[in-house]
Amino acid sequence: MIATSSGDGVIKCWNMFDSEFVLQFIVPKEECAAIAMHQFKPYMVSSFTDGFIRFFEINNKARTLGRCQINAA
Question: Which pTM was predicted?
Answer without folding.
Answer: 0.76
